[in-house]
Structure formats: structure tokens, C-alpha cells
Specification:
With about 160 residues, this protein is mainly α. The protein has one domain. About 60% of the residues lie in helices and about 5% in strands. The chain has five helices and two strands; from the N terminus they run αββαααα. Strand 1 and strand 2 form a beta hairpin.
């Protein structure tokens, strides 16, 4: 039984690290593409700590590109696994699980890791660099709508 438990822990840790670091690699590639840098502060379990240092004069589109680059990699991996599934009329359970986890990265991030209550006006003003704040800027700058509907800081329900 100890061998099975050890294998399960090793398998989970390896899969988890590959998922998280492929995500972080996506951020770093896109940061470099828009003239910024990505810095690794901590590579340990359970969560790595990295930061992106982007130019002060970066455009909204380039900032969004850098921030969402991690999730872009997640979805590229899912797409690859889905193509394999279709071409082979099936795939290994591990690959199905890996694809499922990659699909859940963003919802888990915004609900557990960087928990955000959309009713709280501060969430829309001060976030932790997550794609949610990029969605706010895109909405505010390109939709013609206001983020807050009144002076009472009530969040626009259309968000």
C-alpha cells in the first residue's frame, strides 16, 4: 500500500507542477513579447510565486496579452488533447484528467486562489493582476459602459 500511495503522490505532484509551470511559462513568453520580463520568486509547492514587470507605457491590449498568456497555454494543451481524443477515438484517462484540470484553471483561480466577489467595488479597482482586472479595463475602455452605475459605487449588473 505504501508503494501505491507514494506513486499517487508523485504522480499528482508531477502533473500539478507541469500544469502550473506550463501556465507560468505562457505568462513569461507573452511578457517577453510585449517588452516585459517575468520573474520567478518561488518554485515550490503548492503555489509558485512569479511576477511580471511590464513597461509603464504598455497598451491595454499588450497588457491583456501578457496577463492572459498563462491561460492561453492551458487552452492550447486542452485543444491538443481534444484533437488526440478525436483522431484516436479515445485517449488515456490521465490525458482526460489533465485536460479537465487545464479547463478549470481560470475558474479555480478566480474563485479560490484570488477570490473575487463581483459585488464588492474594491475587487474592480484593486486586484492581484489576474485576468479579471484586464476584463475590467477592456469593458471600461472599449464598451462605452460604466463599471459603476452610480456614485454609491454599485457595480454595473451588465458586467
Amino acid at each position: 500500500m505504501n508503494d501505491r500511495l507514494g506513486y499517487a503522490i508523485y504522480n499528482f505532484a508531477t502533473t500539478y507542477i507541469l500544469i502550473v509551470w506550463s501556465h507560468e511559462f505562457g505568462h513569461s513568453l507573452r511578457a517577453e513579447q510585449v517588452g516585459g520580463k517575468s520573474k520567478i520568486h518561488n518554485a515550490a509547492l503548492p503555489f509558485p510565486y512569479t511576477t511580471m514587470h511590464l513597461p509603464d507605457d504598455i497598451s491595454l491590449e499588450n497588457e491583456a496579452l501578457a496577463v492572459t498568456g498563462g491561460f492561453e497555454v492551458n487552452y492550447l494543451i486542452v485543444r491538443s488533447l481534444q484533437r488526440e481524443f478525436i483522431s484516436q477515438n479515445g485517449t488515456y484517462n490521465e490525458d482526460l484528467g489533465l485536460g479537465s484540470v487545464h479547463r478549470k484553471m481560470y475558474p479555480l483561480s478566480t474563485s479560490l486562489l484570488v477570490a473575487m466577489d463581483p459585488e464588492d467595488p474594491e475587487v474592480w479597482k484593486n486586484t492581484a493582476g489576474d485576468p479579471a482586472h484586464i476584463a475590467l479595463l477592456t469593458f471600461k475602455n472599449h464598451s462605452g459602459n460604466q463599471v459603476f452605475t452610480s456614485a454609491d459605487s454599485i457595480v454595473n449588473p451588465d458586467l
